[in-house]
Amino acid sequence: KILPKLRAMNFNVTWTISQWYTQYFLNILDWKDIVIFILLLVQNGPEFAIYVFGAVFKHFKEKILEDDQGQEGEENHLGIVLKSDPIDFNLCNYLTYIHQLSNKHKF
């Protein structure tokens, strides 16, 4: 449900994920969450980043799905938040979800 909605909003998911990954979420997550992200990758392998990205989008699921395509300002705001602003996301709150994703979708 989330990905089709983001596509309908002309939100470039691939670019955003690429930015997050190459910058290790700098300016997006708190320092504590960046350290946890890096430790997850060291402990579980680089593919674990995919599950973290899934957790971030799950965190914003309600906001993404309730966004009205007719409100252009809201679309732009959501894009700015996900691409460049610090987000209100606590990685520790999603560790169980991340591990469930990793168990369900093993590489």
Task: Give a verbal description of the structure.
The protein has 107 residues and is mainly α. 66% of the residues lie in helices and 0% in strands. Helix 4 (48-59) crosses helix 7 (95-104). It is globular, with a radius of gyration of 14 Å. The two termini are 23 Å apart. The mean pLDDT is 82.
Average pLDDT level:
82
The 3D shape can be described as: globular
User: Could you state the order of secondary-structure elements as H and E?
Assistant: HHHHHHH
Estimate percent helicity: 55-70%
| Overall strand count | 0
Question: What are the key terms here?
Answer:
107 residues; mainly alpha; 7 helices
Give a topology summary.
Elements: H1 2-8, H2 13-22, H3 31-44, H4 48-59, H5 61-66, H6 72-83, H7 95-104
Helix pairs in contact: 4-7
Short description:
By secondary structure, the protein is an all-alpha fold. 66% of the residues lie in helices and 0% in strands.
